[in-house]
Predict the 3D structure of the following.
Amino acid sequence: MSLRESEIAKNIIRTLDDGATRLDRGIVSRLAAARDQALAHHDAAPAWSMAWAGNAKSRWSELPASGLRRILPVAILILGLMGIVFWQSGNGRSYELADIDARLLTDDLPLDAYLDKGFDSWLKRQSR
């Protein structure tokens, strides 16, 4: 909380306290009972929402270890995905198979050549 926000909060508290002293004791007791009843029905579970977004900058600057705990898993995920893409693109086997398929589809070969057991080895020799 900034200094200005703290001053505003203190002014509000002071004003409410001054107003409460001027109230009748019956009203004060009814307000206290209503407050106790409201607190009894209050759910203590934290509300997960975007309420933290306005204060995120100060939290990141105050807690560097916490920031690292948030950034590290994201960085590991990104590096892992980059590694997978690199490994997949570096694997020349897929390009070799695509080249063989392209040659098969564009070449004029007799039907017996496709049934020949040595055809695969001939294709590999030709691709070199």
Observations:
- The CA atoms of residues 56 and 126 lie 62 Å apart.
